[in-house]
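Q: Could you fold this chain for me?
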Amino acid sequence: MQRYLPFPVVFTILVLFCACRKKNDTGECFPGSPTVRQIVNKPAVVKVTATVTPVYLVEEGTIDTRLIPCNLPMEFLQHDLQVIISGDIKATSQGAGPCCDENFVITKISR
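A: Sure. Below is the predicted structure, expressed as structure tokens.
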């Protein structure tokens, strides 16, 4: 005589398996996007807004370029906070956003 597991038991095991499985996450924000420029230890200002781009960085010495960070730590989420940044500016596709927004992966940030 064959025994079958009831559906709720099989379903629960399947859900636990999927929930506990580790993701193979490399930590990169924009996989496949080439780096077009690197920033090393440059002063910048954090801007927090209520617009389409809720947070961006303004690199010192630039006028209209906004760096859109994908990995800004919560402790730096303060409007007009002066920071020192290092990281990679990634290529963006044409028409993906406003003209002067650049995707930015932070490698180092400090106050």
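A (continued): The beta strands are 35-48, 55-59, 66-69, 81-90, 101-110.
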